[in-house]
Amino acid sequence: MLKAKKIVIFLFSGFYFSTVFADDFAMQRQQLVKEIETEVKATSLYLDKEALDPKVMQAIVSVPRHEFVPPEQRSYAYQNRPLPIGYGQTISQPYIVAIMTDLLKVDQQSKVLELGTGSGYQAAILSQLVDKVFTIEIVEQLGKKARERLTRLGYDNVQVKLGDGYYGWAEHAPFDAIIVTAAASHIPPPLIKQLKKGGNMIIPVGTAFMTQQLLLIKKQPDGKITSTQILPVRFVPVTGKH
Amino acid sequence: MNSEVTSLNSVMKLRPPYISVALISISSLAYEILLMRLFSIIQWHHFAYMIISLALLGYGMSGTMVSIAQRYLLLRFKLVYFSCLFLFGLSSIACFLIAQNLPFNAEEIFWDGWQAFYLLLIFLLLALSFFFAATAICLALLRFPDLVSRIYAVDLFGAGAGSLGIILLLYGVFPLPALVIIGLIGLLATLVSCWELHLINKKWLILVISFSMLLLVMTPLVFKLNISPYKGLSKILNINGTKIITELSSPLGLISVVASDKIPFRHVPGLSFNATHEPLEQLAVFTDADNMTVITQKPAHLEQLAYLDQTSSALPFHLNKPNKILIVGAGGGTDILQANYHKTPEIDAVELNPQLIELVDNQFNQFTGGLYQQEHINLYQGDARDYLTRTQQHYDLIQLALIDAFNASTSGLYALNESYLYTIEALQLYLQHLKADGYLAITRWIKIPPRDTLKIFVTAIDALKQSRIKSPEQQLILIRSWQTSTLIVKNGIFTFEELNQAQTFCEQRSFDIVYAPGLSTTEIKHYNQLRQPIFYSATQALLSDQRASFMERYKFNLKPATNDRPYFHQFFKWSALPEMLKLRHKGGISLLESGYIIFITTLLIAVLTSVVLILAPFGFFRHQSAPNNYKIKRFNVIFYFLAIGLAFLFIEIAFLQKFILFLHHPIYSVATTLTAFLIFAGLGSYCSGQLVKLKSRQQILQLSVISITLVSLSYLFILQFLFAFLITTPTSLKIVITILLIAPLAFFMGMPFPLAIDSLLQHEKSLIPWAWGINGCASVISAVLASLLAIHFGFTAVIVLAMLLYLSILFIFPDMEDAAI
């Protein structure tokens, strides 16, 4: 009987603490979003806008980032910084995730391809905004974990494929938007083919913990390709007027 | 106490442990160089530099500890000396193995405070080995005070042999087994010390040492190098179907070749968005587990190489078909394949690393279809500038394409690396070897905001101006993709047809013309846009009379590199630091030129730690005797040993750089210069001990300081002419000449330390370990400071400063004084 009591207390306290932690995490997410909003405002000159799409910010609020990081990193999950997720990969800085997602300019009808699933966080954010997300991960162990996590958390409109992303995902092409977070020496030509006319492709350029620039590739209505290199920070390289 | 020790030695017939001192000096210097190699592999070069520099503070720590506990330690000399050698042998391996397993991630250092703590732990762990080695040598100096100059000479001889030995060893042995050999030499020193200290009858000691040696030998069987998961090699090995198929090691780096049987590598940096061809099968080649390049499979027909025509470096082939080209940095052969695609009849290529040639030429000869053995290709193994100074050949095109890797280049990690390929003098040399209307093409990675691209543009302008070209703006074209930029410098004025060709080339590939003579921004199509057209406006400003003001206002350093300041990759400006630091968590982290910041941090830590280590024994001195009883001014001791510690390395490092330009090979230069400096300084130390019997210490010091100053001064003036005169001399003879030139300088540089120690010995022997520690601290500061001064003022300034430091010691020689501090 005493044993049963202990179990009930244990289960109850577990429930209590998980609720407390969940509330705590939700508060931290709100705080993180505020931080991102302030930084976006400061970088408005470079982003051509004062604020990001509210739907993107809502997606950041709703996706539990702590579920996408290893247990030892959970306490840092809502700090605005990249975190290691194993296999030499990282979960991107939320500020960068928000900007990239905004730059894709997607809607509820969009179909998005992601190269480099990583932890699945970016796919989860996109799943809140679009109809379908197709994501490919080259590191099998990472991909399997991400697939399991996304299923567990109920992101049903995300499909994860393991293997080579060079040829994109021809069965579901063309895509309204493509995001390439996996490091590659160049943009694979098949991906450019699979981007719809008028669609956007975004690529963060840099190292695991250091995004140097965001490369936004646009396929014009006439099929021509242009790129815009965006420095995700308010920084003017020359002082004074010139 | 001096007489006590002497009588103790004579009673026990104890002779100085010369052999074990030599062995420990060999292994500790070899260990220092090897640690740089090991940490360059498992982490990154700049962190390796920081960690090892700071670990050398172990020398300073030993001086402080021995200062405080010298009576206690001397009474137990045999035990302590023996233990230090033994602990060096064991810790050299054990501490490295522990350090490499700490969860330190260099990339995370700006995000996570814990990383600084791990870095501190690594530094302390590695400092331990140097602490033991230095304590052993310091105690030997103290215990045999009459033979200081000889023991110091043996120490320097050992260090010289160690520096040469490890470089030779690394040609034949991988870094981890080399570490075991160093540990074994440490234990061998322990074994020898048993005999030297009459401990040979203690059989259990011999047993313990032998057992430890056996343990060390087994290390490589149990442990592997724990390479950072964020390095390119580790990342690629996470992909199913990839494996290392061969590894080669040399002092230039560890080369790993990776094959993938499932997913091709498809490595073509800077490929146009419009490219349609898929790259051929490739093998990935990593140097020090990063810096990926590729060896490409032999094409069945040339059309399969069409993708190589879709990069910005292909531009010169479209301006005017070159008949004869020179490729600088042949590597795995990609640039040669590009030239082959354009059916270039004659290709000369230069590659510094013989092991890369060995891979393409022998091991993967079949895979590449004997690329380097094709009749129209001549391969020269060595340095590009060396090749060009020897050859009379002239080329239609000299191609330098993406010689360094993307990650290191974009994150500012090369800031401290000297590069003689991108100096004004180097560009002038390339231009001299162009035929009339020939092209020099330099391709670099794009950074946002632009850095490399603009600096190479300014360097080219200056090289043309210094080659007496009146209108450099007529001889430059700069294009870019989103990822790479290619600068073309023509030996002549660009024709209208060439400009049209350039425009067509760019339009077909969606590349942008940043600068071309006579082209304005309205005429140019923009495929790769920035929020502000900074490439365009910067090149315009750099060619106008606004140049100085623009460079002043630009937040990155664009000052061209020269032979005296060969730091092309140094873009850091102090004035921009506060703004960049503020933005580091707001998406601006890549603005921080991390190499320079790490460098400054190293210097700060070294200085602060040194201050603590130097001042720590003061309390102890006070305890021993009242300040007014001091026989020697403390200030003089501090300044003297700081000055000679700083000056010795200033001269060594500065001349090492000067001789790189003579020997044209970093490894030959380091091996020759370091060894010659240490061996001849050892000889100088030994001779100073003999000279003291004939002349006063002050007189010998004057002789050595004046000689150092005169020789250094004369070298500053004559070396460049001498090098120019001997330019075509065979390398072996150049090495002999280098040794002969260093000999007189190093010989006299070996004297000031033992002379002052001898003076301390006579007047206040208890200060010897303190002086040893001060000198150790100064050496650490000096190595970092010399590079910092060279970045800003050039190596000539470093030599001049060293001369002034040497001259200053004439006035502060730590001799008998009445006055207190």
Structure explained in plain terms:
The complex is a heterodimer of chains A (242) and B (821). Chain A has 242 residues and is α/β, with parallel strands linked by helices. Helix content of chain A is 38%, strand content 24%. Chain A has 7 helices and 9 strands; from the N terminus they run αααββαβαβαββαβββ. Chain A has helices spanning 2-42, 44-47, 54-62, 94-104, 121-127, 140-152, 189-194; strands spanning 83-86, 89-91, 111-115, 132-137, 158-162, 175-180, 195-207, 210-219, 225-230. In chain A, strands 5-4-3-6-7-8-9 form a 7-stranded mixed β-sheet. In chain A, strands 1-2 form a two-stranded antiparallel sheet. The radius of gyration of chain A is 19 Å and the shape is globular. The termini of chain A are far apart. Residues 9-17 of chain A have low confidence and may be disordered. Chain B has 821 residues and is α/β, with parallel strands linked by helices.
Write down the overall mean pLDDT of chain B: 89
Spatial gap, N to C terminus of chain A: 82 Å
Largest sheet of chain B, order of strands side by side?
Answer: 7-6-5-8-9-11-10-12
Whole-number tally of structural domains of chain B: 3
The greatest interface here is:
A-B, 62 and 66 residues
Q: What Rg of chain B, in angstroms, do the CA atoms define?
A: 29 Å
Query: What is the C-level CATH assignment of the largest domain in chain B?
Result: Alpha Beta
Instruction: Please work out how many helical segments of chain A DSSP would assign.
Output: 7
Order of helices and strands of chain A: HHHEEHEHEHEEHEEE
- If you consult CATH, what is the topology of the largest domain in chain B? Rossmann fold
Superfamily (CATH H level) name of chain A: Vaccinia Virus protein VP39
Strand order of the largest sheet of chain A: 5-4-3-6-7-8-9
**Main pleated-sheet profile of chain A:** 7 strands, mixed
| Range of strand content of chain A | 15-25%
CATH class placement of chain A: Alpha Beta
The biggest beta sheet of chain B reads: 8 strands, mixed
* Helical proportion of chain B, percent range: 55-70%
This entry's quaternary arrangement is heterodimer
Shape descriptor of chain A = globular
